[in-house]
Amino acid sequence: MKKQKWIQGLAIVLFAASALQAHAQRDFSKVDIEPKPVADNLYMLTGAGGNMALFTGDDGAFMVDDQFAPLSEKILAAVAELTDKPLRFVVNTHWHGDHTGGNENMGKAGALIVAHENVRKRMSTEQFTKLWNRTTPPSPAAALPVITFSDVTTFHWNGDEVRVQHVGPAHTDGDAIILFKKANVIHMGDTFFNGSYPYVDLSAGGSIDGVIENARRVLEIADDQTTIIPGHGPLSDKKGLQQYHDLLMRLRSKIKTLVDAGNTREQVIAAKPTREFDEHYGQGFMKPDIWTGIVFDSLKQQQ
Q: Are 48 and 72 contacting, i.e. CB atoms less than 8 angstroms apart?
């Protein structure tokens, strides 16, 4: 058993190391920023990292997340192609670098950075992620959100009411979803991974139950015409979010049954509780064994 645990631990360390190395070696010059129309004057922008949203109009450009710093010039060029108005606000859905890496550059370009207060707290201090055995240093002062909120804040902007709502511990402890009320569009950040198992950052206060609960709450406010922008993956809708919610509920139940029966972490992973869904949902960043381990740890934290 000790040997099995050591091998599993080594595999996770090597996976994390290879992921970091791949990021460090990535050639961002080959990444294009692609806009996809979502509603009038509202776009999803993709490149490398989390999905962004861009809302344009007479008041100025409003953006959700900003990916990695090396892409900032391309992102700003994409914004300029879609509007001649300046970028006024960037809202961060959470603190991870693939969503906040461009903060400093966007701030220097004139945008005000907005986020939940926990995003600023985590970005301003060293963070240790146990799963990857990785330490993230504090962000530069110029990259920190300059406007923070504790629960909800609303922008009356470009003829719409844009509600930015903290959703409690889910992907992290600082997640926010953004509702464009008139456009009937919701950006869910990394509380929604469309087409893959979601990463739950337990070291940053995340919780599998929180991810499921947030999906349930968004389902309550969405209707059949709502467009949903996930943190990762293609555009979705209420039906797609319902499938995601139901999948997580089903897999949580299977893993909890194994936990309640007294199985160890290694035994639960070895049981392959996600097996029937792995071909579709387990081919991305979150591999099945690692994701099962995260859910196990999340459930154990709640006991």
A: no
Cα 222 from Cα 120, distance rounded (Å): 29
Torsion (CA) 75, 244, 198, 216 in degrees, nearest 10: 90
238-260 and 288-301 helices, crossing angle to 10°: 70
According to DSSP, the residues that pair with 129 across neighbouring strands are 134
Q: What residues does 64 pair with on adjacent strands?
A: 53, 91
Per-residue pLDDT of 66-112, as tens digits, reads 999 999 999 999 999 999 999 999 999 999 999 999 999 999 999 99
pLDDT score at 184: 98
pLDDT in tens, 91-102: 999 999 999 999
Closest CA to 229 of 71, 58, 93: 93
Task: State the DSSP code for 140.
Answer: P
pLDDT single digits (tens) 232-287: 999 999 999 999 999 999 999 999 999 999 999 999 999 999 999 999 999 988 99
**Rounded to an integer, what is the distance from CA 62 to the centroid of its chain?**
18
Considering Cα of 96, then 266, then 253, then 286, what sign does the dihedral take?
positive
Q: State the Cα angle at 51 between 194 and 289, rounded to 5°.
A: 45
Q: What are the respective helix, strand and coil percentages of the chain, to the nearest 5?
A: 45, 20, 35
pLDDT at 175 over 90: yes
> How many Å apart are CA 171 and CA 179, to the nearest integer?
18
Is pTM beyond 0.85 here? yes
Distance of CA 166 to the CA centre of its chain: 13
105: Cβ contacts below 8 Å, ≥ 6 apart: 66, 69, 72, 73, 76
- Residue 245 has, within 13 A of its CA and on its CB side, a CA count of 17
Which residue type is seen at 293? G
